[in-house]
Specification:
Layout: H1 2-42, H2 45-51, E1 52-63, E2 69-74, H3 76-84, E3 91-103, E4 106-117, E5 120-134, E6 137-146
Parallel strand pairs: 1-6
Antiparallel strand pairs: 1-2, 3-4, 4-5, 5-6
Helix pairs in contact: 1-2
Length: about 150
């Protein structure tokens, strides 16, 4: 019976340790994603670059004027240029982390968002991130989003 209790305690302690590690990894993943949006709000291109891996893909699911769904690809260089180009209003993407999955060096994150130009609402949608953890920490390797102006509660 004594061995059973020792075994049970060992399992509980190892599970607690794994949970704490997962929470730390989740916070590190969130930190990388928040770096992206903090960089957007402050037009800080250096901050933006730190959030992304050198090899990355950025895409948007959008609709054409005719209402046809399409996937558009944008380069990180063009994205950074658009954020770094002086503009009078702040670009403010307000996110809510809804799902974070981590397995070893891969993280998948889903966030709802509302995008504002200054204080004016522009659109909403969902971001889907894939991150890789390398020697320099978690970096975004893939980002795809949806954009809409309705059903943005």
């Amino acid at each position: 019976m004594k061995q059973f209790y020792l075994y049970f305690i060992a399992i509980i302690l190892s599970t607690t340790n794994v949970s704490a590690q997962n929470l730390n990894e989740e916070e590190a993943v969130k930190s990388t994603i928040n770096l992206l949006f903090d960089g957007m709000r402050s037009s800080d291109t250096t901050m933006l670059k730190k959030a992304f891996a050198a090899n990355n893909t950025m895409q948007t699911i959008a609709k054409t004027k005719e209402g046809k769904a399409v996937v558009r690809t944008e380069s990180l260089a063009n994205f950074i240029k658009s954020i770094g180009t002086p503009h009078s209003e702040k670009y403010d993407e307000r996110i809510v982390f809804t799902k974070i999955l981590i397995d070893a060096n891969l993280a998948s994150v889903w966030t709802d968002y509302k995008f504002y130009v200054g204080e004016k609402f522009s659109h909403c949608g969902v971001n889907s991130f894939q991150l890789f953890k390398g020697d320099d920490g978690w970096k975004i390797i893939y980002l795809i989003d949806t954009r809409r102006k309705d059903n943005c509660n």
